[in-house]
């Protein structure tokens, strides 16, 4: 028994070293995930059964109160949605005026948390979406309140997500109030992030909202990350101590969102937007020029028909001139003004006749 225990111990240590140092066991782990998927489902079955029973036997008073609360929240959210729709349309118009890159709404997909890493020194979770669902390494993950982390390991039907509070994770952020940039790093505490290398004179204070800046080309810009909880200034230190609380419920959220961002670089997006704008301008130019050419053709065609009208206008010009000569005898003021109107019309006709 002692020899067997020693052999198994040495084998376990060797497997851990190989798994930590090399990538030889990744295919084995991917295949094992197919087998462990059933165990995840079985271990999660009691909780789902309990939730189903609890939801069936909920009291009527609690349901009525929750219904009223949801109705109130629904009305508030509808009002905010109308305002956001107007602001979104205004933003789109302003971006079109500035000839900036086209707006692309990020595609999201709902995922469910099915497991957590048992190691207390790492903050990782397992979700039920994998490589077969289009998940990629480094893909951002967020919940209803803010960013949670990114995908660090892929399997066919599951993925591992590294949370923001892990000690090996950092994310570029900026203060939503004034745009101050900083780096938020994990501390190993699920309720705390820390901003590194923030100048002691920086304009940051308690309650500031930190959002993703998008400078790392990994997380999309504008998503809430944390809220500043404490700022400690020390005159003897060049940097202030800034602690923040994540906005996402890292240890409570069960349903998550996978963000599928635009894979193009900013230069590619700018080039595509410029090409699209040029094609649109060219199309508008062609559409405006098309009605002009038919309009000019009919204007030029009556020239050949001008000589044809000379026989009708030339005889009319001679009788019209005689009343004009007799006008001083009768002195008709108004009839005398009519013949000069026809004389300019007769002038082009005579020119046409001469030609």
UniProtKB/TrEMBL annotation:
Gene3D superfamilies: Rod shape-determining protein MreC, domain 1, Rod shape-determining protein MreC, domain 2. Residues 266-355 are annotated as: Disordered. Residues 114-259 form the Rod shape-determining protein MreC beta-barrel core domain. It comes from the Bacteria. Residues 288-336, 343-355 have a biased composition (Low complexity). Keywords: Cell shape. Coiled coil: none annotated. Pfam families: MreC. PANTHER family: CELL SHAPE-DETERMINING PROTEIN MREC (PTHR34138). Belongs to the MreC family. This is Cell shape-determining protein MreC.
